[in-house]
Known about the structure:
Layout: E1 6-8, H1 11-20, H2 25-32, H3 36-45, E2 47-49, H4 50-60
Antiparallel strand pairs: 1-2
Helix pairs in contact: 2-4
Amino acid sequence: xxxxxxxxxxxxxxxxxxxxxxxxxxxxxxxxxxxxxxxxxxxxxxxxxxxxxxxxxxxxxxxxxxxxxxxxxxxxxx
Length: 78
């Protein structure tokens, strides 16, 4: 069975990117092919599928890593 990866997004980073691009949420949703209600839920929840995060980053013409929160390393990983 295929597992879908979920990543934690940074809603503030997405909002800032929207402002910098002078783009509205509706425009972003149309470019990504997602509904505005799903986008609002994602922003509130703070998590999305990896593929969706990539679509958002591509639509905003920014690096994927700019909109996700990477897990903190504790130094105990092997």
